[in-house]
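Ticket #4471: complex job returned nothing on first submit. Input attached below:
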Amino acid sequence: MTDSFEPEIVAFCCHYCAYTAADMAGSKRISYPPNVKIIRVPCTGKVDAIHIMKALEKGADGVYVAGCLEGDCHFKTGNIRAAHRVRRVQALLEEIGVEPERVEMITMSAGMGERFAKTARDFTEKIRQLGPSPVKTAARDFRRRAVS
Amino acid sequence: MNTRETDKQSVLVIGGGVGGIRAALDLAESRRDVVLIDKSYSIGGLMTRLDRTFPTNNCDLCTISPHLSESGRQLRLDLKPMTVVEQVEGQAGDFRVTIRTLPRYIDVEKCTACGECAEKFPDWIRFTPGLDPRAPTCMRYPQATPYAFSVDADKVTDFDALQKACKVGAIITDDKEKTETLSVASIILSTGAELFDPAVLDNFGGGQFPNVVTGLEYERLMSASGPTLGQLARPSDNKRPARVAWIQCVGSRGINRQDVPYCSSVCCMYALKEAIVTKERFAEDIEASIFYMDMRTCGKDYELYLNRAVNEYGVNLVRSRPHSVVEDPETGNLVITYATDDDERHKTEVFDMVVLSTGFRIPASTRELAGRLGIDLNEHGYAQTSGFSPVATSRPGIYVCGVSESPKDIPETMIQASAAAAMAGTQLHLEQDTGAEEEDFPPEIDVSGQDPRVGVFVCDCGPNIGDVITVSALVEEVRSFPGVAYAEAVGYGCSKESMDKMESLIREHGLNRVVIGGCSPRTHETKFQDMMRCCGLNKYLVEIVNIRDQDTWVHTDRPADATRKAVKMLEMGVHAVARAHPLMEHSLPMNQNVLVVGGGVTGMNAALILSDQGFRVYLVEREARLGGIARNIRATLEGDDVGRYITELAEKVTADQRIQVLTQSIIVDHKGMPGRFTTGIQTGPRMHYMQIEHGVSILATGALANRPGQYLLGEDDRVMTQLDMDAKIADDPESVRSMEQAVMIQCVGSREPGNPNCSRICCQSAIKNALRMKNLNPDMQIYVLYRDMRTYGFQEDYYREARKQGVKFIRYEPERRPEVRADKDDLAVCVYDEVLGRSLEISADALVLSTGLIADDETTEDLSVMFHLPRSDDGYFLEDHVKLRPTDMSVRGFFVAGTAHAPKSIRESITQAQAAAGRAQTLLAKQWINLGASVAKVEGDKCAACLICVRVCPYNVPYINAEGYSEIDPARCHGCGTCVADCPARAIQLMQYEDDQILAKLDGLFERMN
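Support reply: We reran it on our side without changes. The output follows.
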């Protein structure tokens, strides 16, 4: 791990709450690390385990799924399903020796710009402490070996 | 017939709170032109200041903000903020209204709400989207409508400097006040009310002690975007309070100089909400106590909310009207002095904070406006309406909704708003849908088989993006992305000039996909989708990349990082849009017929309004006669003759050529989709089977009069229900006149296990009958044994009158219920009086039980299974959203009204019937029903029929079809994508968010990184 390590983070954000909260952080000009890249989904219920795994495989050091507060899901229960899937992915990661903390489920309401920014900061910091994802380095090594 | 032949096809809505917005949207959606005016510079009213709303404790702004932006977009809706009514001439169907608009000094069309002006000259500009630390004037969400600033000209000292600060040239320095005259067919008044300012009272310390706040101020202290960022802190020392007290009825239900006599109807619920949210967040560390007179939780499922507050959250309820609040100047703590029923000595208790639950007041400006409109106000300053025309004012053609009519909460305001829209609509034609509005675009170019030619347009949004990153350099880098055929910087992409330029570039370069790098798709996607359609491209071939709100605005101090992030974000967009394909929005021809189930007051009212607008209505009634439960009611609390009203209504319905009345009929089967339903009915004594084709359905199946076997009801002739007494007073007044003593018991069969909710109508029924009995025999002694008197709103006047006339009210606790003893000569009720502290025995010539209503469980169960509709736990139909869509149901095209929704009065049932007719017209006004494109699709040959999608769908849409694989009805799919993510065979895709598009974004993000 080098000092200049900048984690790559993917945030799957639901349209109705987390994505709106991110916009809210924008209109309030609350800064957060640029490491976080947002992918908008209609509902966190849409976020598949495969999306999270693919993100890690392709090069993300951390992935979080951000949805509405429990009980507030625009589609009733999508965020609950998402939380369930995130737990499953965490268990899977643990099994293959990857820190499960690299994946997380977070909830917020559309008005919580402050919380969006804080979450982005905290998560980025956590992943920075963990260092580069072993999945990424393994995949890179594998590709290198394949080339040579 | 109310419809008038006129060429004036618009409605004026005065007041842009939630009620006004709902009414204006309903009218616009049912193809009527609307002018919505508000004296403020943005719409939203009081609701935008609330933190969370009962009973869901949601932040409902997230739910209503789409409504607001919707109203910014509607073609038929002309929004005029900062505008007031000067004069009204003419009559229903042909009013001429003079309105005056104050100068805003900002061109709303040009303003991008970038905030440059406010940044440079904060004192001159008005725009407070949740940033304002000054409670309670800020909004919680970033989307004020119109999304534009406004200039406070009195404070501006240098207009030139201000003009220079605005890069889009939106400042109009010589903006003038404008006066214009509108021709309108009808007017809706929805100006709402103010909240009482407790500073005028001298005993509670409002406006005097810093730690005494109003309910609304407390909302701001709790709010995440409030002055303390949601860290509840008391004003005097910024410490979190450990003990908070609410005092109810401050300024309401009083007889003192500053009080109003009526009940404000919402304060019990909002105090409970604030107490619950407080306990939810700070649990053990905080104590919440509510001082109250009667807990009036009589809305749908509100009683359950009260029970939860007490049993689950440990909110402490103290039945007392406190005498005074005194501050300890050392600590800032507050001493409440009060007395309770069971102890006549005064007690004192110390709290860290006191919240005064203040209610509604009609401001002087509304009284003046009423004068200009020429409408009558009641003695309390609210618009006068009548029992059977609940939203019509005294002047024909002028309607009212929301708190301007009487104190009420948001769901009731929404119902009344839709009702007012429906009634205002009767004054003008329902315009035929010619499809002209939709077909303004050239035919779509077929791009299938073409390689993606992506055009990327990057906005600088003035300094918003342009000052942080160098847009030209960004564009240069984007040009090298695979698939990008053209890239250009476009300044303000949303300006008309840039839009025109982009359109010609798209044509010139033969682009078939577009990426916009600019602001949020939440606000601007529709605008760019329309641009695509103008170019003959499918609207789903554009991707908006939010490099403003989610990049330059949040990384202002790190321009290099912001630029790198923007490149990555655009790369994600380009990758995703390359895999986008044209999507068809599902639309189907709309059947224009209406099925109304239930021929009571509600069903008949809804049928008449819709027939009046030219729609064919099938009115299905189970019984042989029309009229429903209201046939058993003779008079309302206000003294209206119900019997005559029902007879006339039934005659009108029967005589109506467009209404087919089917009595002795039941619904036996149902199929189809919104806009095209087919329902099978067995009708008449011989149960003849017939099928009805209809586009919408209104459920008005009512409720049942409860007759629980308690207190000898059904065993002793002297024991009867309020309904029985109501008939006895009308039919056999002599027997009532001869009574010397009568006892009424409230909450019989309600607010108890088995039927935990409040029946809402029983307190008013008891007061009504007591007053009528007193009228027959002024010497009669009447005792009302109650738990809480729930005479909400202006019913409080009748409650006061009953007490004045000597009706005695004795409170009982559910643990110590009254007992009845009967023999041949004597009927006696024994009750423990909490005030006297001993039991009383009252002999009675009649014992009248307030038994209220229960859901017609069998009927609602049958229908809910047939129509796939949800019900509440106690068997009433469940609306789509308890706060904002109280009349719509979860299946599009279904509406609920009257007591099938929840217990309510005749007046309230009529209101909801009108609302349902209005909501139905928003669908019926269109020849086609658009179902959107973002729906889940199953690939049949991949499906293993494992039933996972069937189980996980929150709306029960997927089913296994005859071919043995899962099928998802696009008409019923809400587009959440849960089934897609859970399908183990990967057989389902959500259109517009297909997996390959999401994975392409990941590719775009990581492609050149590894």
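The CA atoms of residues 99 and 133 of chain A lie 9 Å apart. Closing as resolved unless it happens again.
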